[in-house]
Amino acid sequence: MTCYLLSGGKLFSFFGIGILIFTMFVHFWSFGDNSLLDYISGFDKIDRSKQHHPLNTGAIKVDEASKVIHFGMVVLFLIAIAITLLHHGDQTKAICGFGIFVIAGMCYNMINKFTIFKFIPISLAFTALATWGYFLNV
After folding, report:
1. Collapsed DSSP state (helix, strand, coil) of residue 108
2. CA–CA dist 108, 104 (Å, integer)
3. DSSP track, 15-81
4. Taking a C-beta distance cutoff of 8 angstroms, is the pair 135, 4 a contact?
């Protein structure tokens, strides 16, 4: 959102409010994916501070969570493409930025518990997301 505004985007506009809401959903779904993968890989099951989480308590079934998370991520990716195509910025760079965000974010979610280099994919993911916002207007 910040890079969208720095590149000339208007917060109090149709697109500004839409991008703000969209990025909140991206946050929810990407962190939901992280929680799902941490649970499936067993890390959240043994972490005492996460015993109250819905997957651990059984309030949400894993297959239901997986369907919701993955469906939402596909929808958000399609919305990102639509937002990009409706803007007058550098659409190619913006779509590449969002694609890199998705790929790097997925890499982080899959490897973050297994390597000391987890800072690389998460840094790349959020930098790429910032470039998406920036290139919507430039």
Report:
1. helix
2. 6
3. HHHHHHHHHHHHHHHHHHHHHHHHHHTTHHHH-GGGTTSHHHHTSS-HHHHHHHHHHHHHHHHHHHH
4. no
Reported pTM: 0.84
For residues 12, 84, 102, 39, the Cα torsion angle rounded to the nearest 10 degrees is 50
For 69, the token pair is 């998370």
Band the pLDDT of 90: cuts 50, 70, 90: very high
The contacts of residue 54 (CB under 8 Å, 6+ apart) are 60, 65
Residue 7 amino acid letter:
S
Per the structure block, which two tokens stand in for 92? 């190619």
Instruction: Look up residue 14 and give its DSSP letter.
Output: H
